[in-house]
Amino acid sequence: MARWQPGARERLVLAAVDLFAEHGYDATTVTQIAERAGVTKSTFFRHFPDKRELLVAGQETLCRLLVEGIAEAPVTATPLEAVATGLERASNAMGPMNRELGPRLKAAIAASTELQERDTLKHVGLATAMTEALVSRDVPATVAHLAAELGVLAFKRGYTEWTNLDHDDTGLAPHVLAALADLRTATAALT
């Protein structure tokens, strides 16, 4: 095995998702993941504390992009407009690997209770980051939390739609923003 080969983190994620789908989460070992990715077990542990954390490999980056986008929204932006700015920034950072990984990741999560729990925690983390960013903009906490939850729901819906396409000419952002617009319309029907 070559040492310090570029892209080890991405290869580990892809290998893990494939192995989880093929053999199940519980039956897949860190050694198998490292071997499939073409790295050593110690390289695995340089990138991830355990195999469960592979699921949320990009969560820190995603949270940072969402928060930066919300912070950079115009001062006059409504809470949902600020969330849209955050979603657009984060979505634009996602590329073909993210799209390719979607269906395989969904299958692996569906087959494991532990991964379902970790996926739920990931979405809670995204909502918390967006809520805090909105509160920093002086949005009342209840409104910030609701806007953030709508943002998470829009991201999930847009990502699912994007990954289910046969081909992609537009990227993730239009799908996420369309999902947010649909949710905004739906919330108007609640009153």
Largest beta-sheet details:
none
Strands, count:
0
Secondary-structure element order, N to C = HHHHHHHHH
Instruction: Give me the Rg, rounded.
Output: 18 Å
Helix coverage percent of residues?
Answer: over 70%
- End-to-end distance: 61 Å
The gross shape turns out to be elongated
What is the overall pLDDT average? Answer: 90
Structural class: mainly alpha
Beta-strand content bin: under 5%
Describe this structure in words.
With 191 residues, the chain is mainly α. The chain is built from nine helices and no strands. The longest helix has 24 residues, at 141-164. The radius of gyration is 18 Å and the shape is elongated.
Sequence-ordered SSE layout with sheet pairings:
Elements: H1 8-23, H2 30-37, H3 41-47, H4 59-72, H5 79-92, H6 96-110, H7 113-135, H8 141-164, H9 173-188
Helix pairs in contact: 1-2, 1-6, 4-5, 4-7, 5-8, 5-9, 6-8, 7-8, 8-9
Q: Would you summarize the structure shown here?
A:
By secondary structure, this protein is mainly alpha-helical. Helix content is 72%, strand content 0%.
Descriptors for this entry?
191 residues, mainly alpha
